[in-house]
TrEMBL record:
The name this protein goes by in its record: Uncharacterized protein
Signal peptide, first to last residue: 1-24
Keywords, ordered alphabetically: Signal
Region entry Disordered, spans: 41-76
Length: 245
């Protein structure tokens, strides 16, 4: 029986088992927050000196190898951005009383926009389930495609559990899009004293989540040394570059 009151859409997201983003219906943007809990000993002497500790290194904080000290500086360095490439400004999310499939449509497009780093107003979504079918109680599995300008299509595999008061959805995307401006921004920001940067991609590229073999770029540092870097989407949706081993 189709519920008489509109269902509330709650979306729990895990892309390819690595990309975790919390999506709440009606919100205009996604937000990933890393919470780190630190414990202290209540009986510890407050005046006692405490040893300095460091957080364990992560992929995103791993420095690139510096050039050989014996090589002279021959090229001027590029100005390196201080912050990560920002998420684009997007329209307001649909209201809570909007049909569930319409709100899902917006949520999937926004995931693609944030990964891309660009708002694509011509993006379209096509799901192989109807609004009436999604309103039926029970479990449903279906797919949705987000078509972006430039012929790029992002495929989402979705599992839905429809209850009496809400719809819980989990999606899985093996690939997410990245724009060339975002890739060059992050490559310049993360590489060691770059003088020139280049990526082998068109305006948009689908990048496999959790793998660093799909986006290849080259950095020429201030000594004229060329280094290949591979881009990878992490589980928080950020794009990082690591030098080839």
């Amino acid at each position: 029986m189709k519920p008489t009151a509109p269902l509330r859409l709650l979306t729990a997201i895990a892309a390819a088992g690595t990309l975790g983003v919390a999506v709440a219906a009606g919100l205009g943007a996604f937000d990933s927050t890393l919470l780190v809990a630190h414990s202290t000993n209540a009986n510890e002497d407050a005046n006692a000196p405490k040893p300095k500790t460091q957080d364990p290194p992560t992929k995103s904080s791993a420095p690139s190898p510096p050039p050989s000290p014996s090589k002279p500086v021959t090229l001027p360095a590029l100005k390196q951005p201080a912050k990560a490439f920002p998420n684009p400004k997007v329209p307001k999310a649909p209201d809570d009383d909007t049909p569930e499939l319409t709100r899902l449509d917006f949520s999937l497009r926004q995931i693609a926009w944030n990964s891309l780093g660009v708002y694509d107003k011509k993006a379209e979504t096509d799901c192989d389930i109807s609004e009436s079918k999604l309103a039926e109680r029970g479990d449903h599995s279906f797919a949705c495609d987000v078509m972006l300008t430039g012929g790029i299509t992002v495929r989402y595999e979705i599992d839905a559990t429809v209850g009496t008061k809400d719809v819980k959805l989990k999606w899985n995307a093996t690939y997410l899009p990245v724009s060339k401006p975002k890739a060059l921004h992050e490559l310049t920001r993360q590489s060691y004293k770059p003088a020139k940067v280049a990526c082998s991609m068109e305006a948009l590229k689908l990048v496999k989540v959790g793998k660093n073999d799909g986006l290849s770029c080259t950095v020429t540092d201030i000594t004229g040394t060329n280094t290949t870097y591979f881009g990878e989407l992490l589980n928080d949706g950020s794009l990082i570059f690591l030098p080839a081993k």
